[in-house]
Amino acid sequence: MSESQKTAASQDVKMEVEKNRNRAALRRTFLGRVIRSVVVAFWVMVIAFSLIRLSPGDPVRMALGADVTEEAVEEFRTQLGLDKGVLTQFWDYFSGILRGDLGYSYFSGRDVTEIVGTHLPVTLMIIGLSIGFAAIISIPLALYVAMSKSNTVNYLFRALTSISLAVPGFFLALMGLLVFGVYFNIAPAAGYEGAFPANLKYLWLPALANCGSLVPVLARVLHSSIVDTLDEEFVETGVIRGVRKGKFYWSYLLRPSLAPTVVLLSYMVGVMIGGTVIMETIFSLPGIGRELITAVDGRDYPVVQSIAMIFGLIVVFFSFVGDLTGYLLDRRVTLS
Amino acid sequence: MTTEVKKKKFIKEGTFGIYTGFFMLGSLIVAGLIIPRVSKYKPNDLASMPLAPPSRANWFGTDVLGRDVFVRVFDAVFIDLGTAIIGVSIPLVVGTVIGTLLGISQNKRVNSLVGSIIDGINAFPFLVFVIAMIAFIGPGVGSIVLAISLVNWARYARIARTRAVVVNQQGYVEAARTLGFSKKRILFKHIIPNVSSETRAYALSDFIIVIIAVAALSFLGLGIKPPQAEWGGMIRDGKDLLTVGFWWPTVFPGIALCWAGIAVAFISEGLTRRMREVGTR
């Protein structure tokens, strides 16, 4: 609760009524978001399911290659469940997902749920680390540029964010490898250890390279919302009252500017996932993205479908959380 | 007098970015036109010893097969830029039309059905979805364009739909309706041009995403097939040699790719600035 909210509530009983109304609005928003997310999640499953129908000609023959017997083709078809009707197939697939059964990899015979279970944590960790790095870089940067009156600083900020937006992550990663891996020799080029603090040694460079696409977007949005906040009267009040520096930056500048950034961050999760797939391939990290590339190379359809779907569901989940957090952070919208 | 001052500022705002961007892009295209034609090396022929460092004979050195990196970098300009341009144009047109139609349609059921399909497509991470599609339709230039189009139209459709709802209620559309213009004329002459100003602005920033995606797919071995010179593929060929001291087969195509991306980023940034300036005047 912000200062203004507290005083407002004590001032007038009418505010109590208003508050209750807000609670109802919150519940409505929450329910609406849940329903929307479930509908979108359903479509994510349908789209992932129908991917196999994209292949020109017979997907089974394409996967197996030219010289196989008729029996092998039929067997593979039965194994994929492609011999049944579309609706039956979809029901098998859909009820399988609900039971946590994602099918089997055709080539390794492994349970897809197990593949996802072992490799997803690594991917999520890279994403988490990337977001952490991005926050550490963008928050001070955005604050500094927003507070600065200098035209040159603003100009440089715009030019540099434009440039870093256009540098591909995989090139950045390779250059990082050249500088930190070869020249300074402080980052391993490949390899991985499972345990948590030990694996940071292998993850920091991929995560740093991956946040190259996040920092410019994050810094820009944060910068423009801090600039908007600076126009507010309460900032002036804070300056006049001589609020402590730390409190001033956090409560008066950052906190009110955070809502758009959080929403954006949840939308950027998709971009981060795409970047992570590439980082895992470059640094040979045992994440789910590398599994995806291996599966694509081997035309391992059940694995490709499931991984695409899982990533889709992750994005749906984070947009839901992001929307809601943004709404909770910026309740002024409903109060005024 | 005041307008004079404002005008001067208006010319300044964003212009430098636009000019720099166009200069960078233009020089790349000119180099892509001229260099492969006048050079004594062919992009796929043996030019010198494998992995010869940059020298007067081979400005950017040679790659692992002894091909001249300089010629290959500029030979790749058209395949990279071309694939990206087509990969942006198709979704731009398709998405704008579908989104606009959705925005102005009165049919609630179609609207919410197609709307949730669009949300479903947009939920997939762009690169992951394109990679997954390529697993099913196979690698190659055509596949890249097809996969990117199938994924990306939904992003344009979402922007167009939101915009079309607003445009549809504007005075000039109402006026055109009152004047009894045909629905087709209102759609194509009044609504689509105003909706597409938004989607075209997005297309410019999308171009950066797509050109990086095209190179990334080739980098992952899923895109444009060798021996065609292509920046992402060249970086892929060179990446294992990077850590043992042979930096030139990777760094030069990477710089070319960044150059193209930065050029478009500058144009996009400059135009956005300029549009904002027009908006505030």
Automatic annotation (TrEMBL), chain B:
Q: What is its main location?
A: membrane
Q: Could you tell me the Gene Ontology terms of the biological process aspect for this record?
A: transmembrane transport
Q: Where in the cell is it found?
A: Cell membrane
A Pfam family reported for this protein in Swiss-Prot or TrEMBL? BPD_transp_1
The record's keywords, sorted A to Z, are: Cell membrane, Membrane, Transmembrane, Transmembrane helix, Transport
Transmembrane parts of this sequence:
16-35, 77-104, 124-153, 201-224, 244-267
Name the membrane topology term: Multi-pass membrane protein
Q: Name one GO cellular component term.
A: plasma membrane
Q: Where is the ABC transmembrane type-1 domain?
A: 77-268
What is the name listed in the Swiss-Prot or TrEMBL entry for this protein? Answer: Unannotated protein
Question: From what organism does this protein derive?
Answer: freshwater metagenome
